[in-house]
Amino acid sequence: MRLSESAHPVLTDEGGAILDERSGRWTHLTPTAAAVVLLLLSGSGEEQTASRFAERYGIGAEQAARDVRTVVGMLAAQGLAADEPAPARHWWRWWQ
To answer: CATH number for the domain including 77?
Structure first.
């Protein structure tokens, strides 16, 4: 999972928000949701994120997996997440 190109996160351990530049709306995140997004953005897949989340907060693997799925589902429902990798952009191929 990655954020869509129009989504701009402002995340801390105390929570955060994601700006959707298409709509101009902010989606505010709880500290738990912000931690999940931070782990996902570090390049971890959902499974690895759930494992790291469970370890970090001392919760069961099933609960961590549900929490990660909930956050990913919320981001997808609001159009803030994209499953496919971002296309490579090369400034030297601007004419293509």
So the answer is: 1.10.10
Domain that holds residue 37: 2-81
17: in domain:
yes
The rounded distance, in Å, linking the Cα atoms of 45 and 86 is 15
Domain assignment present for 90: no
Of residues 44 and 68, more confidently modeled: 68
Whole-angstrom distance, CA of residue 56 vs CA of residue 51: 9
If you search the block for the tokens 């159009």, which residue do you land on?
A: 79
Question: pLDDT category, 2, cuts 50, 70, 90?
Answer: confident
Token pair 């990913």 in the structure block, residue: 72
The structural domain count of the chain equals 1
Do strands 81-82 and 25-29 pair parallel, antiparallel, or not at all (unpaired)?
unpaired
Does the model's pTM come out above 0.70? yes
- The Cα–Cα gap between 23 and 19 comes to 9
Is there a domain that residue 94 lies in? no
